[in-house]
Every structure is written in C-alpha cells, then in structure tokens.
Amino acid sequence: MTTTRSIDIAKSCCSRRHDRVYEIMPLTTANSKSLFFKRIFGSEDICPPQLEEVSSEILKKCGGSPLAILTIAGLLANKDCTNEEWEWVYNSIGSTLGKDPGVEEMRRILSLSYDDLPHHLKTCLLYLSIFPEDYEIERDRLIRRWIAEGFIDTNGGRDLEEIGECYFNDLINRSMLQPVEIQYDGQVVSCRVHDMILDLLTSKSMEENFSTFFRNQNEILVLQHKIRRLSLSYYDHEHIMLPSTAIISHCRSLSIVGYAEKMPSLSKFRVLRVLDIENGEEMESSCFEHLRKLFQLKYLRLHVRSISALPEQLGELQHLKTLDMGWTKITKMPKSIVQLQHLTCLRVGNLELPEGIGNLQALQELSDIKVNRDSMASCLLELGSLTKLKILGLRWSIVSTHSKKDTFVDNLVSSLRKLGRFSLRSICIRSYHGYSVEFLLDSWFPSPHLMQKFQMGTYYNFPRVPPWVASLDKLTYLDINIDPVEEETLEILGELPALLFLWLMSKSAAPKQRLIISSSMFVCLREFHFTCWSNGEGLMFEAGAMPRLEKLWVPFDAGSGLDFGIQHLSSLRHLAVEIICIGAPARDVEALEEAIRDAAHLLPNRPAVEFRTWDDEKMVEEEGRGDTEEEIHASG
User: Fold this and answer.
1) For 514, which DSSP code?
2) Which of 328, 388, 403, 445 fits 307 for a cystine, CB–CB 3.0-4.6 Å?
C-alpha cells in the first residue's frame, strides 16, 4: 500500500488491472463545524452569534481538511472572540485551500499559526524538529531538554518544570502538537508532531541554522554554518556517515536514534549541553571515555543496551541535572555520582543506591532503585535526607530470613517517614514473589501529606487498607493489593476526596455478600480497574455511583447474572470485561458478552466494549453441542 497527498503520484503507482486509488473525502460541513467549535469553545453547538458568518467563511477556506480546521481553531482559541480578530485570520488564509487543499496552502496555514506564537513557544516548538517523523515524544523528557537548552526562564520563583508543562500544554492547546497518551487526569504525557508540521519546522530550523539533521542517505544537506544542534536518525549501517566538513565544536546538543557506533568522538563536542542516545546498536563503553570532558553537559540520556559501564569520573560533570540510564547493561553506578550537586533527576535500571546518596540534595526524582542482600542498609537511611525528593521508585528484594532484615526495614521506614514530611508526592514499590512489604501496613506515620500517587507492583497483599492511605486527601492515583476485598475496603477508599484512578487487586472478594458501591463513594473517580480471581457475588453499582467514571475494567464470572448496575454509570466511555470461564458452557459466555454489549449500548456515551476471557480451556462441554437441528428434534 502506498500513501501520498498527490493524486498524480497515487495514479502512477497503480497497475491498470488490479490497483485502485482510494481518496479520503473531506469532512462534511456539519462535521467541520462540530470539530471547529468543539476545539475553540469546548462544545460543538456553541458559537457566539456575531462570529457565525465569519466562521462559515473560514471553514469554506479549510475545505474540510481536519488538519487545517484544527490548526486554525487552535490559533483562534488563543485570540479574542471579536469579528476583527477572526476577520484578520480569515484574510490571512490563502484563497485556494477550499478548492485544492494541497501542500502549499496547508503550509500557509501552518506558517500562520507558527508566526502567531510568542517567541518562547516558537523556540520550544522548533526544537521538536530534532525528532524523527512519527516519533512518540515523552512530555517530561522534552521539558527537561528544554530546560537544559536554556529555553525556560525562571519566572517569579516558579519551578522550571512547572513552567515547561505550561509551555507544553499551550502547544497542545494550539494544535501544534498531537496528543498520543492521555493519562487518567486528562494530562497529555506524550505527543507526536504531524508530518506536515514537522516539514515546516525542519525547513525553518534549516533556514535559521537552529538544528542540523542527517536521517538517511536520501537526505542530503548542505552545511553552510557551524552546527548548533545535531540530530542523527539512522536505521541502516549503510547510512551512517557524518560529513567530514561538519563543524561540531559549537554543537549544543547531540541526539541519536538508531545506529550510533560510528558517532563522532565526544572530545569534539566542547560545549555540549544535551546528549541523548537511543537504540544505539553495538556501542561500547569506550565511546564514552571523553564524557568527563563535557563540562557544560546538563542532560544525559542513554538508552543503549550494549553499554555496561560509565566513566568513574562522571562526578566531574557539575552542571548535570538529568541522568537517565534506564535501558543499559550498567550494573553499578560510578561512585563519583554522589558529587553531582545539581542533579535533579536520576533514572536507573534496577541499581543499588550508591554510598553517599544523601549528598544529592537537589534530587527530585529517583527511580528505580533495588534493595537486596548486597545493598548497604546505611544508604537507605541516607534517603531520608533528600528533602526535595518528589518521586521515588524502588524494588524490594529482602527475604524475611535475611539476618539484617529488621535493619533494612527500620532504615527504609525511617527515611519514608522523613520524605513524607518533606516533598514526596509519588512512590512506586515493586517486589518479586516471596518478598513481603508487610512493614508498610502500619508503620508510615505521620502520613505523607503531599502524596498524590501510590503504586504497588508486588505479589504481597495488604490484609486491609493501611491507615496512612486512608488519610491521603491529595491522593489522585492508587494502585494497591488488598486481600480480601470487603465492603469496608470500598467504603474507606471511596472516601478519598481527590482519587481519580484506582487499581484494586485481590485474590478474593467477600464470598457471601455483594460489594456495593453507593452514590456517596468515589465521587471524583474517572478510571477503575478491579482485578479479583475469586469474585464472589461481584460488584453492584447503585444509582449515582461513580458519577464521573469514564473507564472501567471489571471481572465477571460467566455463570453469574448480568445485573451489576451498569445502567447507573452514565459517564462511562470504555468498558473492559474479563470473563472467568471456569465451569461455564461456551454458549453462556457468548450470551453474556452480547448482553453486556446491549446494556452498554443504552448508556449516553455508548462506551467502547472489549472482552478478555480467562480459563477458556476449563469451559464445560455442552451436551449435544455440534448436533444438527434435525438430530436434536429427532432425539426429543
């Protein structure tokens, strides 16, 4: 299959007999208005009377192109709702787009939106030209790179990352970035750049000598200036080549996606601030022997599986703020890492805490750290001195028979208590089968008053809701294992005032009673996952229950009745049902799926429904299954 914007190219790719050109039709007038008004005013039915005429004229020029409509709507959403402003936008759009929505007219619209951006957003958007086409860009990674490049200025003492989030959201709202992953609270956490917008950014970036790209052997660029930012995207050994004429001594950032083993020596990058390498095949640790000389480096991200060590002199990079080496074969951090006084983010792949971790007083994120028999218990105690730490991820691997288990537990609990009084907002604790985190049940006091996210990735189940969890009035995300789940469990969790996301996992529910979710519980919850393999009588949603719930994952015994109050979930948009098939005939499973679909179809938002079946092999054989209708009548 070939895709193209040119009908002539499409026809030239077709053979006379078998191929055909499928032309995507433009949006209808009604759908164009719906998309346009919803993007600007939040509702497809709202438009101020004084803007109705000019809106229709603008939409005529957009010619039913979704990209044109969203781009212009994103521009207008940031302007006053006056005829003068909207007429100016109308007059700025080329006159031929409605007749022929081709590349040049679309570029005119995109340029109009780009030129309307304030200077700081232009710079931040232009920076996205360094990423390959269709690449999914993580929000936090992008913001940290903006900070390292100096694109974000401190404004009134606000946190740089908070300002960066505002910039990112502004670009999303202006439709200059496409949302990819949207999390439970509505925040966009990753994005893409539309290929036409990327073309525009690439062109402007080359004009201004903002960035230089080498993406494949067909993309030949004339080097007329010193390289300021270098982006290499190679997926084939044959394409790997940086021209010898390239002047890289003034390069501020180096980004590599794909093959990177022939990258220029780091000794040539004298003023590098950002080094980001992903999927570099066959790279050796020796490639980074000159890393210590990058004295201005602020951001270092290495997602390269072949790297097994970093230079011991890493601590000499005194300006480093972000160190992300989560996808490497590195088994031990350099001892000098604790000298990085400005480090705010440390992401590693299941490594032990280094001795002296308490020296990293600027640290705000630390993940994922492992605690096992080879760890130093004293390092756990040092964690408590990281007063600015907001995000902590750790993997607990201490068996109950370990001779120093109590010391490890006491030191970790002591540090968690201190962190909870300081800045801790998110903790993820994981463990493998056989490792218990029972010590967290009653030991965390006073409760971490700023906690917004608690996530368990363990085989251990709390026997009840920990009392400190019940008092977290800022908690928005909770992933917790509790066994058994009883009515009291739901009552306690249902009173958490800010909870938006809940994943409740259990081995069993109370066997002799149905778990009731009433109208007074979970008033803010938007997403609910309930995983329980012995489901008892299941859940029942009463009228008014979970009024804002949009996504629901729930188990269902194939032999149970359908009535679980789905008709009361008026905000539901997505329903995932896990059907437990043990002892049920296939006919009942099919009937249950159809009944659930029918019930969901009656809800206001007509939620999407998906099914997953468990223990299919344990379904019972139906007597007479496979007999013809005549045989069944004859036997009767």
Assistant:
1) P
2) 328
